[in-house]
Amino acid sequence: MNKKRMWSAALLLLLVLSTVLAACGNSGSGSKDTLVFGRGGDSTSLDPSRVTEGETFKVTVNLYETLLNFGEQDTTIQPGLAKEWNTEDGLTYTFKLEEGVKFHDGTDFNADAVVKNFERWANGDEDRFPYYNSMFGGFKGDEGHVIESVTADGDYTVIIKLKRPQAPFLKNIAMSMFAIASPTAFEKGDDQFARNPVGTGPFQFVEWKANDSITIEKFDGYWKKGLPKLDKVIFRSIPDNSARLNALIAGEIDLADGINPADGEKIEGNADLQLIERPSMNIGYLGLTVTRPPFDKKEVRQAMNYAIDKETIINSFFEGRANIAKNPMPPSISGYNDQIKGYEYDPAKAKELLAKAGYPDGFEMELWAMPVPRPYMPDGAKVAEVIQSNLADIGIKAKIVSYEWPTYLDKASKGEADAFMLGWTGDNGDADNFIYVLLDEDNIGSNNYTYFKNDAMHDLLIEAQTEVDEDKRIELYKKAQEIIHEEAPWVPIAHSTPLLAATKDLTGFVPHPTGSDLLANVEFK
Amino acid sequence: MSELTPKMDGIVEAEITRTMGPWREAWRSFRKSKVAVVGMVIVLFFILLALFGPLFAKEGINEQMAADRLQPPSAEYWLGTDDFGRDILSRIIHGARISLSVGFLSVIASVIIGSFLGIVAGYYGRWTDTIISRIFDIMLAFPSILLAIAIVSVLGPGLENALIAIAIINVPNFGRLIRSKVLSIKEDEYIMAAKGIGMKDARILFSHILPNSMAPVIVQGTLAIATAILEAAALGFLGLGAQAPQPEWGKMLADSKSYLQSAPWTMIFPGISIMLTVLGFNLMGDGLRDALDPKMKN
Amino acid sequence: MLSYVGRRLLQLIPVLLGMVFIVFMMIRAIPGNPAQVILGQQATAEAVAVMNAKLGLDQPWFIQFFKYVGGILQGDLGESMRTRLPVADEIWPHLAATMELAFFAIVIAIIVGVNAGIISAWFQNSWFDYIAMILALVGVSMPIFWLGLLGQWAFAIEFNWLPTTGREQVRDPVNAITHLYIIDTIIQGRFDQLWQVIRHLILPGVALATIPMAIIARMTRSSMLEVMRSDYIRTARAKGQKMFWVVYKHAFKNAVIPVLTIIGLQTGMLLGGAILTETIFAWPGIGRYIYDAINFRDYPVIQSGILVVAFIFVMINLIVDLLYSLVDPRIKYD
What we know:
B: mainly alpha, MetI-like fold, C: globular
């Protein structure tokens, strides 16, 4: 019987195989001019003006440039493709462009190219350029369209005329979706361009493997000398957070986005890794639909604010990497009202208010929890569980309800939720982008999910949109926040600090609060 | 049985030997298989745990103690605590009830619907058979997990809806099984005889054909419970199954996957519970198959 | 034979049409507006309305249905609502990724499963038989994502033998021609890359292979046991032929049909059912593609994706049926 021989052969094979495997292990670290950036999802398109989704901007911010830039880690206005700009009256803006800049395809960057980009957007529609629509009030011919004209004055001067003042105009111009693309490239057609992006940025496009990786490489003709420092950047999609961290630990990626707060400590304890905190520009909140009883009563909404123990939530499920929120926008945004005293955790007071509103024994409600981790709320379902037990303490029976993310947003925007968890990451660091977008009556049915409506606040916000005097504008927003605090359509929960992790030798990476990180200065030491 | 006995007592006699005798014999041969008995013991253990465990487990499985988060197994918490500071052992005990209910209820539902459709298709034949069989073909051509996800997307995530989705995707399996059984029994002499003496269709179906199709259904059903528990866990992993704070095992697993390295007990114990239960049902199903239906080796 | 194939293909038409109809109706029953989802949380209500009109979602469902079926008949699988690219272009790389993984997994499952089954039957009731069969049962009793994460932790992190995620060494990407990387690397003579591709296949491949492996092993064993009892095997043994040949050649040849059926079924399952494995191992495959499409309410991708997977599934079953006559000439089709 050759039974024995067969077994020893099998054993030998196993040994050989495992040795070979082990010998070939550790091949993670290759040349160190390439950065592999692991993230949760793939980009939708590489034409930033056509999407509203952050995974696209993460890539395009490195391929294209905008006329103006945001500051390194804030949303102050800095020079970009325009080296100087000025306005006399808030209606006519003059931009002086950098000279000698070329697009990746060799086309010259000049005033004419800028005009062509603006023409392209202004002649579009909501479907093609959704962000242009929401930031500049429509398209050519629309009544709300803010931009009167964009013209070239010589080769390197662009003049933009507005129909009426728009306070955050310069901030809008700096948003990564209004990147200047090569006219030669986009004139070939939208679909062609979406997969073959051409800009002036430090990196140029190489390859896109759908749902897997996007590769970009150093653009040798980049106008800022000595940049970029890396030869190549590869964006990899790894949907599962734990798997992404595993890939980082194994050395297959160098930088990982969307780190669970729970893993923060472990990364800090790992000698090969570093934890990176993204400056916070978000708000996570519990929205109370004011059209649904009992949340039509102000006292009930205030009671909810007193009942929820934000500190425990932040300590347990943000692992302390968040600040307690009291206003609908983060403190880094100008106009933030720090004089407002947040609702403290006080179940007794909450019970009292409930009794005053006519619900001494509480009531039953649905508590909607988001099904997916978001930068402003890493684990919605678990935070909902804490809120549920907080509410039980004051006699409110909350049933946690969750839908898939698209269904969730759709139903919540129709006002079908009693109370729902949601959040927002700022687009351009302007107060308008938080308060007006999220709480004004104009946005009921889209981003004002609570159906909150307040005439006094509405007037303040509309006035602020065209107020060019910064101090006056700040005052208007401070007043608006007082109204919101008193009326309490939300329970503001936290301004979270989104986490990233990288290998120890990575330097020069400066995470941006908007979530689109410029990688030109990154290198390995 | 003698040829063509149109007398009633012949049928009764046949029924007795078919229902009583084989079951007792089956139990005897089931007992002989060590593996099957081990399976049954595991299953019984978890059933008892589900029925009576909650009486002994610690109170307040949903009570959150922030101070005791992610404690390793100790004298106080035998299997450690989870990220809310909840006792994992108690949650596993309570979870047994949920996981077993999902398994049993979804399979019972698919057996009922599947049997009904299968009997109708097999007994009446012709176009009813064609339509029902085509529908089964269509359903079986879908990748089952995708079908379940689509169904849950329509109904909304939640334990009940996950249960419904799992029941639906298993219907064609039972439907086909019963149909083929009905087709083979239909031609049996005693059924022909019953028809010959003018027995009503419904009576023939319920008093003859159905009891005689039970053996393969029990075997298939036991194995399907195992699969159903795994499918529920998979839906839980995708966030489409049980919702907080239900201590469903699959959800406990999915919830703790980010603690695999820092607090492995949060992931290992619910995983082992699932594996053992499913293994129990599989072992038992195997034993039952050998005992009840030695020909069905599939 | 040919007419048999023709008849089988004709029978497929109502099944596929029925599937298209069911999927079509089902995804429209899913709450959530695709335009809203595509435009994202930051979109305005007007933008959503315009998008709806553009996508044709404001038309009655039966018009949408007939347009879709008409398109399919002309080989047009529709256009993704999200990326605005033709589904037919997008689907192949994803399908190829899954096919490569599924093929790898099924090969592992067959090699290990069939041999374990044969040996178990050969030495029935030996310790090997017991252990193999218990392992097989444990294999089918594991939640796959749990096994996958444990495997990733052990083999990729603790021992650092294998890569955690993905299809290729990203720092040295494969130049995709067919999108089946094993073939692409061989065509280009990049055997170093071929080795990397295989290393990336091992963890997800084994995780995916676990269940079919166990099922194949059990099927092979029971089918073999039946054959081994038959007279003709006894005769062969009595004639003094070497046991190895008796088992592997004569007995297995006669036991192979039910095993083939199970292999066909399992291969089909792997193609669409690998969503969890693809999620954990960041495998850019078709399961993940369809699952993402469900999340984005990308109707054309869901419809066409499921249709393509189901089509392959039924085709594999057809091929398996035809293989019967190859292994067993007694089976004839007419």
